[in-house]
Amino acid sequence: MASGLERDDEQDRREEALALLRRLGAAEIDHLGSDLLTHLLGTEAILRSWQVDEPVALAGLCHAAYGTDGFAPYLLELDQRDRLARVIGPEAEAAVYRYAACDRSEVYPQLGRPTVAFADRFTGTAEPAIADEMQTFALLTAANETDLVRRGVFDATTEAGIAALIRSLIPYAPVLEAVTSSP
Protein backbone atom coordinates (compact mmCIF):
# COMPACT_ATOMS: atom_id res chain seq x y z
CA MET A 1 0.00 0.00 0.00
CA ALA A 2 1.33 3.42 -0.89
CA SER A 3 2.07 5.86 1.90
CA GLY A 4 0.51 9.31 1.93
CA LEU A 5 3.71 10.82 0.54
CA GLU A 6 3.85 8.28 -2.30
CA ARG A 7 0.20 8.92 -3.14
CA ASP A 8 0.89 12.67 -3.28
CA ASP A 9 3.86 12.08 -5.61
CA GLU A 10 1.74 9.79 -7.80
CA GLN A 11 -1.04 12.38 -7.94
CA ASP A 12 1.50 15.08 -8.84
CA ARG A 13 2.85 12.94 -11.69
CA ARG A 14 -0.66 12.32 -12.96
CA GLU A 15 -1.55 16.02 -12.83
CA GLU A 16 1.69 16.91 -14.62
CA ALA A 17 0.96 14.29 -17.28
CA LEU A 18 -2.55 15.66 -17.80
CA ALA A 19 -1.20 19.20 -18.07
CA LEU A 20 1.37 18.06 -20.64
CA LEU A 21 -1.26 16.20 -22.69
CA ARG A 22 -3.45 19.30 -22.69
CA ARG A 23 -0.53 21.57 -23.70
CA LEU A 24 0.31 19.19 -26.54
CA GLY A 25 -3.27 19.40 -27.84
CA ALA A 26 -4.60 15.93 -27.04
CA ALA A 27 -8.10 17.36 -26.54
CA GLU A 28 -8.06 18.81 -30.06
CA ILE A 29 -7.10 15.60 -31.89
CA ASP A 30 -10.03 13.59 -33.25
CA HIS A 31 -10.08 9.99 -32.11
CA LEU A 32 -12.89 7.65 -33.19
CA GLY A 33 -15.92 9.77 -32.44
CA SER A 34 -14.37 11.77 -29.63
CA ASP A 35 -10.96 13.27 -28.92
CA LEU A 36 -7.64 11.74 -27.98
CA LEU A 37 -7.61 13.08 -24.42
CA THR A 38 -11.00 11.47 -23.69
CA HIS A 39 -9.65 8.15 -24.97
CA LEU A 40 -6.43 8.45 -22.96
CA LEU A 41 -8.42 9.18 -19.79
CA GLY A 42 -10.72 6.24 -20.52
CA THR A 43 -7.78 3.89 -20.99
CA GLU A 44 -6.22 5.09 -17.74
CA ALA A 45 -9.52 4.67 -15.86
CA ILE A 46 -9.82 1.07 -17.05
CA LEU A 47 -6.27 0.30 -15.93
CA ARG A 48 -6.90 1.87 -12.53
CA SER A 49 -10.07 -0.22 -12.16
CA TRP A 50 -7.84 -3.27 -12.68
CA GLN A 51 -5.64 -1.96 -9.83
CA VAL A 52 -2.44 -1.89 -11.87
CA ASP A 53 0.78 -0.34 -10.58
CA GLU A 54 1.08 3.42 -10.95
CA PRO A 55 3.63 3.35 -13.82
CA VAL A 56 1.23 1.19 -15.85
CA ALA A 57 -1.68 3.56 -15.18
CA LEU A 58 0.47 6.55 -16.21
CA ALA A 59 1.56 4.69 -19.33
CA GLY A 60 -2.11 4.13 -20.14
CA LEU A 61 -2.78 7.83 -19.74
CA CYS A 62 0.02 8.65 -22.20
CA HIS A 63 0.00 5.52 -24.38
CA ALA A 64 -0.45 7.36 -27.68
CA ALA A 65 2.07 10.14 -27.05
CA TYR A 66 4.26 8.86 -29.91
CA GLY A 67 1.32 7.67 -32.01
CA THR A 68 0.70 3.96 -32.52
CA ASP A 69 0.68 1.48 -35.36
CA GLY A 70 -3.09 2.00 -35.48
CA PHE A 71 -3.19 5.76 -34.84
CA ALA A 72 -0.76 7.98 -36.74
CA PRO A 73 -1.15 11.35 -34.98
CA TYR A 74 1.40 11.88 -32.23
CA LEU A 75 1.98 14.42 -29.50
CA LEU A 76 5.73 14.07 -29.11
CA GLU A 77 8.59 13.24 -31.46
CA LEU A 78 10.73 10.27 -30.48
CA ASP A 79 13.65 12.58 -29.77
CA GLN A 80 11.50 14.06 -26.98
CA ARG A 81 11.25 10.83 -24.98
CA ASP A 82 13.13 12.39 -22.08
CA ARG A 83 10.44 15.08 -21.83
CA LEU A 84 7.76 12.46 -21.18
CA ALA A 85 10.07 10.44 -18.90
CA ARG A 86 10.62 13.49 -16.67
CA VAL A 87 6.85 13.77 -16.20
CA ILE A 88 5.67 10.16 -15.83
CA GLY A 89 8.93 8.45 -14.90
CA PRO A 90 11.28 6.25 -16.92
CA GLU A 91 9.39 3.00 -16.31
CA ALA A 92 6.08 4.43 -17.55
CA GLU A 93 7.77 6.15 -20.50
CA ALA A 94 9.46 2.90 -21.55
CA ALA A 95 6.02 1.24 -21.58
CA VAL A 96 4.60 4.09 -23.70
CA TYR A 97 7.47 3.69 -26.16
CA ARG A 98 7.02 -0.10 -26.37
CA TYR A 99 3.28 0.28 -26.95
CA ALA A 100 3.81 2.92 -29.64
CA ALA A 101 6.68 1.01 -31.26
CA CYS A 102 4.76 -2.25 -31.62
CA ASP A 103 4.59 -3.40 -35.22
CA ARG A 104 1.17 -5.01 -34.89
CA SER A 105 1.42 -6.98 -38.13
CA GLU A 106 4.47 -8.76 -36.71
CA VAL A 107 3.62 -8.96 -33.00
CA TYR A 108 -0.10 -9.75 -32.91
CA PRO A 109 0.17 -13.08 -34.78
CA GLN A 110 2.66 -14.26 -32.12
CA LEU A 111 0.45 -13.42 -29.14
CA GLY A 112 -0.29 -16.37 -26.91
CA ARG A 113 3.11 -17.94 -27.52
CA PRO A 114 5.56 -18.31 -24.62
CA THR A 115 8.12 -16.12 -26.42
CA VAL A 116 7.29 -13.12 -28.58
CA ALA A 117 9.80 -11.45 -30.89
CA PHE A 118 8.75 -7.88 -30.28
CA ALA A 119 9.05 -5.96 -33.57
CA ASP A 120 9.78 -2.23 -33.21
CA ARG A 121 8.20 -0.27 -36.07
CA PHE A 122 10.46 2.72 -35.40
CA THR A 123 13.78 0.88 -35.58
CA GLY A 124 12.82 -2.12 -37.71
CA THR A 125 14.37 -4.46 -35.15
CA ALA A 126 12.87 -7.40 -33.26
CA GLU A 127 13.98 -8.80 -29.91
CA PRO A 128 12.47 -11.31 -27.49
CA ALA A 129 10.15 -9.52 -25.09
CA ILE A 130 10.67 -10.10 -21.39
CA ALA A 131 7.79 -11.10 -19.11
CA ASP A 132 7.32 -7.75 -17.33
CA GLU A 133 7.30 -5.87 -20.63
CA MET A 134 4.76 -8.25 -22.11
CA GLN A 135 2.53 -7.95 -19.04
CA THR A 136 2.49 -4.17 -19.30
CA PHE A 137 2.02 -4.30 -23.08
CA ALA A 138 -0.88 -6.73 -22.65
CA LEU A 139 -2.57 -4.52 -20.06
CA LEU A 140 -2.16 -1.36 -22.17
CA THR A 141 -3.43 -3.11 -25.29
CA ALA A 142 -6.46 -4.58 -23.54
CA ALA A 143 -7.37 -1.32 -21.80
CA ASN A 144 -6.97 0.66 -25.02
CA GLU A 145 -9.25 -1.66 -26.95
CA THR A 146 -11.73 -2.00 -24.07
CA ASP A 147 -12.16 1.77 -23.93
CA LEU A 148 -12.95 1.87 -27.63
CA VAL A 149 -15.44 -1.00 -27.38
CA ARG A 150 -17.14 0.67 -24.39
CA ARG A 151 -17.58 3.82 -26.45
CA GLY A 152 -19.38 1.83 -29.15
CA VAL A 153 -17.19 2.88 -32.05
CA PHE A 154 -16.90 -0.59 -33.64
CA ASP A 155 -19.26 -3.01 -35.34
CA ALA A 156 -19.87 -6.51 -33.94
CA THR A 157 -17.28 -8.14 -36.20
CA THR A 158 -14.55 -5.76 -35.08
CA GLU A 159 -15.57 -6.21 -31.45
CA ALA A 160 -15.28 -9.99 -31.86
CA GLY A 161 -11.76 -9.50 -33.23
CA ILE A 162 -10.89 -7.33 -30.24
CA ALA A 163 -12.22 -9.98 -27.85
CA ALA A 164 -9.97 -12.54 -29.59
CA LEU A 165 -7.02 -10.16 -29.30
CA ILE A 166 -7.61 -9.71 -25.57
CA ARG A 167 -7.92 -13.48 -25.08
CA SER A 168 -4.52 -13.88 -26.79
CA LEU A 169 -3.05 -11.50 -24.20
CA ILE A 170 -4.19 -13.54 -21.17
CA PRO A 171 -0.97 -15.59 -20.91
CA TYR A 172 0.95 -12.37 -20.24
CA ALA A 173 -1.57 -10.72 -17.90
CA PRO A 174 -3.93 -13.30 -16.35
CA VAL A 175 -6.16 -10.53 -14.91
CA LEU A 176 -7.46 -10.18 -18.47
CA GLU A 177 -9.26 -13.50 -18.16
CA ALA A 178 -11.82 -11.73 -15.97
CA VAL A 179 -12.20 -9.02 -18.63
CA THR A 180 -13.04 -11.50 -21.39
CA SER A 181 -15.45 -13.49 -19.22
CA SER A 182 -17.42 -10.42 -18.06
CA PRO A 183 -20.86 -9.89 -19.59
Category by helix and strand content: mainly alpha
Q: Element order, helices and strands?
A: HEEHHHHHEEHHH
Q: Gyration radius, to the nearest Å?
A: 16 Å
Largest sheet: 2 strands, antiparallel
Mean pLDDT: 94
Keywords:
mainly alpha, single chain, two-stranded antiparallel sheet, 5% strand, 183 residues
List the SSEs and their pairings.
Blueprint: H1 4-23, E1 30-31, E2 34-35, H2 36-49, H3 54-61, H4 81-88, H5 90-101, H6 104-107, E3 117-119, E4 126-128, H7 131-150, H8 156-169, H9 176-181
Antiparallel strand pairs: 1-2, 3-4
Helix pairs in contact: 2-3, 2-7, 3-5, 4-5, 7-8
Description:
There is one protein chain. The protein has 183 residues and is mainly α. The protein is built from 9 helices and 4 strands; from the N terminus they run αββαααααββααα. It has helices at 4-23, 36-49, 54-61, 81-88, 90-101, 104-107, 131-150, 156-169, 176-181, and strands at 30-31, 34-35, 117-119, 126-128. The chain has a two-stranded antiparallel ribbon. The longest helix has 20 residues, at 4-23. The two termini are 30 Å apart.
Could you give a short description of this structure?
The chain has 183 residues and is mainly alpha-helical.
